[in-house]
Inverse folding.
């Protein structure tokens, strides 16, 4: 009799434990949480808009395999022409410490978002690095930057504001 009661209690508690588990996924480990955070920051930080060809046209629906592979469309201004690097390859050559140092100190060519990145805490700067690094290498290096006097042979976006022609006063 007592045995049967204990048996029922055991079955009941197993059922409760099973039901409690439904609908909840196991908590992500710290490494996975960091990669998820990095992915979020890359999207929210607009990194793909410059560093991933076709991102804007696809409305942000490109597979992650294409993310951050660099662009042949330059950004031209008084500094010359700068190309969004292939960050997947770049981070193979750049240590995490160098990346953190670059974010803290770089005054690179516009429009790279160094100033925006400095608003993030160190854990978030690190998360961006780890996420992109976790994607592995892909694609080809972007073209080298050009000095101001060199005419680009690739498409480029002119970052110098255009001033409308002065209107001639009417009669
Ligand atoms: C508006 C366009 C634009 C956006 C947005 C942008 N970048 Fe860049 N990025 C560039 C350009 C252009 C360069 C090349 C700059 C240069 O030559 O100095 C660059 C360079 C880099 C480099 C090379 C750094 C170095 O030491 O020269 C890394 C790494 C990088 N970007 C990562 C990112 C990440 C991560 C984000 C998102 C937080 C981001 N970029 C957002 C345009 C952009």
């Amino acid at each position: 009799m007592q045995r049967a009661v204990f048996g029922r209690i055991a079955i009941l508690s197993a059922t409760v434990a099973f039901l409690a588990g439904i609908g909840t996924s196991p908590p992500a480990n710290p490494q996975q949480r960091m990669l998820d955070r990095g992915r979020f920051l890359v999207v929210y930080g607009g990194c793909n808009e410059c560093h991933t060809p076709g991102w804007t046209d696809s409305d942000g629906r490109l597979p992650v395999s294409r993310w951050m592979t660099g662009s042949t469309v330059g950004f031209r201004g008084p500094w010359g022409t700068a190309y969004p690097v292939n960050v997947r390859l770049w981070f193979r050559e750049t240590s995490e410490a160098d990346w953190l140092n670059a974010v803290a100190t770089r005054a690179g060519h516009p429009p790279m978002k160094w100033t925006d990145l400095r608003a993030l805490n160190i854990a978030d700067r690190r998360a961006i690095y780890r996420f992109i690094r976790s994607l592995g290498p892909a694609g080809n290096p972007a073209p080298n930057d050009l000095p101001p006097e060199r005419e680009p042979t690739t498409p480029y976006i002119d970052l110098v504001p255009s001033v409308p022609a002065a209107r001639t006063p009417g009669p």
